[in-house]
């Protein structure tokens, strides 16, 4: 397993390099001018000087090579400096946002906690709700609980976040007045009152994101459980006199988790994608809103960096899913 993990991590390096090249070339071909936000009163020669200052006058391969060096070498060195107090990367040029003229990773680090508060919590809540629903729906197939659960999950999976987000705002903020409709990113949790406010403003965005997570994972969990409940080893376990709890929650659940692990692991990057829309609706000042504003401002270094980070998540969690296969099922080995 260790050899397989090292091999997969090694193969991930050229994969990520190719992905970064594709993202860079796509952004190069995309329409838009980073100088479009500059006032019309600025003379053309000044705009040209600004383009050259941003590095737009250099050939494409030079700019791509510089971005690779800055992202993979300079930024980790800056992280080491910030952590250990060293000066390894002092004076080195970093990936700079065209819109704010600030280092991209510094802005990402500022926005990341807001996104993690919402995304991580919604994913955990979605999984904790989906697993029991899927297990019990499979065990009580065609019962009232199963039919109601099927209907609710299908509705949840079909409703897009931009609709469910507006719907919960209308119900819980406008009509009932229970929850705030705008996420206050400046709130500092220092006591019980501010902690309560933080929970209250997280309820609706977490609810919207967790809805689709719950719907998807519960359906996969139900289908996988149904497939294993009819296997011969289940009848053998019952014939040996094992309790129903041991049969279902130990033997059946462990084998059923193998395909579900894929859905859970691969769903992590996509929940970040869903957060882009949700953050716009609830005004969460996170990575999703950062990406949208960068696209609108033609801030290519910011767009490329954030998009590439999502690609890293996809590759990383693919590897994690494959490793968990071997942990859950001893028959699976990668020798």
Description:
The chain is built from 11 helices and no strands. Helix 4 packs antiparallel against helix 5, helix 6 packs across helix 7 and helix 6 packs across helix 9. The chain is mainly alpha-helical. The protein has a domain of 189 residues: MetI-like fold (Orthogonal Bundle), CATH 1.10.3720.10. 76% of the residues lie in helices and 0% in strands. The model has no long low-confidence stretch (mean pLDDT 80). The radius of gyration is 24 Å and the shape is globular.
At CATH level 2, the architecture of the domain at 108-296 is Orthogonal Bundle
State the order of secondary-structure elements, H for helix, E for strand. HHHHHHHHHHH
CATH homologous superfamily title of the domain at 108-296: MetI-like
Distance between the termini: 7 Å
In round numbers, the mean pLDDT is 80
Overall 3D geometry? globular
**Parts with pLDDT < 50 across at least 5 consecutive residues:** none
Q: From the alpha-carbon coordinates, what is the Rg to the nearest angstrom?
A: 24 Å
The total count of helices amounts to 11
Protein name: ABC transporter permease
InterPro entries: BPD_transp_1_N, MetI-like, MetI-like_sf
Transmembrane segments: 115-139, 151-178, 198-215, 257-277, 308-328
Pfam family, one: BPD_transp_1_N
């Amino acid at each position: 397993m260790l050899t397989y993990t090292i091999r997969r991590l090694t193969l991930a390096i050229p994969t990520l390099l190719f992905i970064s090249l594709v993202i860079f070339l796509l952004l190069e071909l995309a329409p838009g001018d980073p100088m479009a936000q500059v006032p019309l009163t600025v003379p053309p020669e000044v705009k040209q000087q600004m383009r050259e200052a941003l590095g737009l006058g250099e050939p494409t391969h030079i700019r791509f090579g510089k971005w690779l060096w800055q992202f993979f070498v300079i930024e980790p060195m800056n992280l080491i400096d910030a952590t250990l107090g060293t000066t390894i990367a002092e004076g080195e040029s970093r990936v700079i946002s065209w819109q704010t003229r600030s280092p991209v990773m510094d802005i990402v680090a500022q926005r990341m906690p807001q996104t993690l508060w919402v995304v991580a919590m919604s994913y955990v809540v979605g999984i904790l709700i989906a697993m029991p629903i899927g297990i019990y729906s499979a065990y009580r197939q065609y019962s009232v609980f199963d039919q109601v659960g099927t209907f609710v999950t299908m509705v949840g999976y079909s409703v897009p976040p931009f609709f469910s987000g507006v719907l919960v705002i209308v119900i819980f903020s406008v009509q009932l007045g229970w929850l705030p409709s705008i996420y206050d990113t400046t709130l500092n949790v220092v006591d019980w009152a501010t902690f309560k406010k933080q929970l209250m403003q997280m309820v609706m965005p977490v609810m919207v994101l967790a809805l689709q997570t719950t719907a998807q994972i519960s359906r996969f969990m139900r289908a996988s459980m149904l497939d294993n409940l009819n296997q011969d080893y289940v009848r053998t376990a019952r014939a040996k006199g094992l309790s129903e709890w041991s049969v279902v929650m130990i033997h059946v659940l462990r084998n059923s988790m193998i395909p579900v692990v894929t859905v859970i692991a691969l769903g992590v990057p996509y929940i970040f994608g869903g957060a882009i829309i949700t953050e716009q609706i609830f005004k969460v000042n996170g990575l999703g809103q950062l990406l949208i504003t960068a696209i609108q401002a033609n801030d290519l270094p910011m767009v490329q960096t954030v998009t590439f980070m999502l690609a890293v998540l996809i590759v990383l969690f693919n590897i994690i899913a494959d490793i968990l296969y071997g942990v859950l099922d001893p028959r699976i080995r990668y020798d």
